[in-house]
Amino acid sequence: MKAIITTVLLLVALNLQAQNFKFGKVSKAELAEKVHPKDSSANAAILYKKESIRFDYRKGDGFTQVRTIHERIKIYNKEGFNWATKKVRLYNASGQSREDLYKLKAYTYNLVDGKVKDDKLKNEGVFDEELNKYWKTKTFTMPNIKEGCIIEFTYEISSPFKAIDDLEFQYTIPTNVLEVVVKTPEYFIYNKVLNPQTTYLPKIVESTSSRNESVTSKSSSNGGGWDSRRNTQTSVSQFTINEKVIKVNETDIPALKDEPFVDNLGNYQAKLQMELTAIKFPNEPYKNLSNSWDAVTKTIYEADSFGDQIDKSGYYEDDIDALITDLSDNAQKAFMIYNHVKSKVKWNGYYGFSTDAGVRKAYKEGVGNVADINLMLVSMLRYAGITANPVLISTKSHGIPLFPTRKGFNYVICFVEDENVMSLLDATDENATFNTLPTRDLNWQGRLIRKNGSSTWIDLAPRKVSKDITGLNIKINSDLSAEGKVRSQKFDYMAKRYRDKYADASDETYIKALEKDKGDLVISNLNIEGKNDLLKPIKITYEYIMDNAVEEIGDKLYFSPLLFLSTQENPFKQDERKLPIDLVYPMSDKYMINIMLPEGYDVESLPENGALDFADKTGQFKYLVNQNGRFLQVNVELNINTSFILSENYTFFKQFFAQAIEKESEKIVLKKM
Asked: Which residues pair with 360 in a beta bridge?
């Protein structure tokens, strides 16, 4: 009897819990919750999300994809307020290839004087924005957001496309309950792949079901005379659709935690990608839609908004002729044309491998999207007799494509493979130069399309080591201060990083950045060269004086030879790591330090010379100190010869870095003579 009662009570409790997920049934207990019970660091949490996809049959239109979303989100604090704004991207081309969002219903719930108060989303909280001629966004911002509130919304999206957007199972906040149901007609064949880089593996259940569809037809029985409407006959026919069903029912999904030096957190999200590979309707031949990357790139290249744009040249020929008429070297020609495009046409911030304004209009008006600019660059280089081809890429924010589809790319750059020039170029970034791209471009591989239509993969990861070489002179004064001069040279991506951050900054701003958190450091006589010459390194020189640079204990002096240039703390603090480290590019930091010993002192002890190695010279650290009369020379060098460290090597890399920092901080000890 007790067992029966227990079972009944359990069923009642489960039923009550399920009822709480009905739209609008927000409980006081949910509103009163101060922190997430399983993740106290969470700023917000998805209490419940249900996503369903089905295909409705509509006479004349065929199958229409309908995606229904219902979400309930708890916001614990102000840092979680960004979850109160939802942005939905919709395809918005002219004609029938348009997606629509409708049936939007949304409320914010707060607990006021012990009662649940709701605020309805109104029209003024909903915004439409056209991104370009193909895409728009619908954004809604929830009303009356406060700490502890709950927001809830539901909407549907209708789409004429059979392709299904990624099904996401994990977010940057915890998810209490997730329900996903996808029903596809048996006529559509999909290839399904769970993101291989995810660390969370949901249980995906596949089954089949069937449903009946009705089609209504009207016909006239009198041959179509003037009163045919009175004799219209209506007939209803029914047919059965067999469906393939995918279900995911998960609880307590942990948040996808961001970690330092991650390229794109979305690359590691638990999500299912579904590629439509074939269509087979009854009594019709099998239609294979599965593409190769060659077929995808061929389709893109033959489009009016891509290949045809490269072939246009009349709008710029006079300008380019005047620009390169006295040049014979292709490297010089490429450099002049590249800078001409960067100065002539500014990027409007929009991605895409298809032109928006078109190259002719973009050139005339001086603004365009990525494709307008970089396809124009390819065209001009070819006109000048230089071998140049477009490269389709997926940016870091877009992720890594798993299937050969047009959706796998969202950007295009230029590759010059002339005998005197082998370089990747992106003219959308004023600080980019030959083989020094914006970091958004540095994602895995790109698809190079040659003029004859062939295509191949090309590695986007930088191979050349970007260097930062610093010379430091140190003179120790009797008041225990240190003064001297610093000379620094930054190359390639190191130089670009400086230009991106400080190119337009005043000297005072940069001095403040150098002095920040450096104690009693005062910098003067700053001089910077090479800001605007992208082919040269950035050269920085300044003088400094630093009070309390040396510690005096008894008759001995203690100081670190790197002074304020030493690394203050290890950036890799986690005990363990789930995601790889993306350093963006290989790098080298080298310090050459000259120290003049103060009068009346000699060396008592110096740090030992040493070297560290990580993963067979993937990382190297060298420390060399030498005395030459009244002078000490210290050379410190850290080289990371890769841009990517796998998570399984994290512990060793962290130890390598910690040992290098510890070595940097070792003291030189001087004693009175």
From this structure: none
Please name the helix (run of DSSP H) or strand (run of DSSP E) that holds residue 340, with its range, or none: helix 330-344
Closest CA to 134 of 161, 156, 103: 161
Determine whether 34 is exposed, middle or buried from the number of CB atoms within 10 Å of its CB (0-12, 13-18, 19+): exposed
Question: What pLDDT shows up at residue 135?
Answer: 84
If phi over 0 gives left and psi between -120 and 50 gives alpha, with beta otherwise, what is residue 482?
Answer: beta
Nearest to 387 by CA among 413, 346, 438, 423: 423
The CB density around residue 606, as the number of other CB atoms within 10 Å, is: 17
pLDDT of residue 213: 76
Length, in residues, of the chain: 673
- Compute the distance between CA of residue 476 and CA of residue 556 in angstroms, rounded to an integer: 13
pLDDT at 13: 42
Residue 5, CB-side half-sphere exposure with 13 Å CA sphere? 2
Question: Which residues in the chain come in under a pLDDT of 50?
Answer: 1-19, 223-229
* Residue with the two structure tokens 């910077």: 528
Q: Under DSSP, is residue 293 helix (H, G, I), strand (E, B) or coil?
A: helix
Whether residue 402 contacts residue 273, with contact meaning beta carbons closer than 8 Å, is answered with yes
Q: What is the pLDDT of residue 221?
A: 54
Radius of gyration of the chain (CA): 32
Sign of the torsion formed by the C-alpha atoms of 495, 501, 503 and 505: negative
- The CA distance from 424 to 429, in Å, is 13
For residue 12, what pLDDT is reported?
39
Biggest alpha carbon–alpha carbon distance for the chain? 124
Q: What's the confidence (pLDDT) of residue 615?
A: 95
What beta strand segments (E) does 615-667 contain? Answer: 619-628, 631-640, 644-645
Q: pTM value? A: 0.87
Q: Report d(CA 378, CA 359) in Å as an integer.
A: 11
pLDDT of residue 224: 46
Which one, of 363, 328, 339, 175, lies nearest residue 256 by Cα? 175
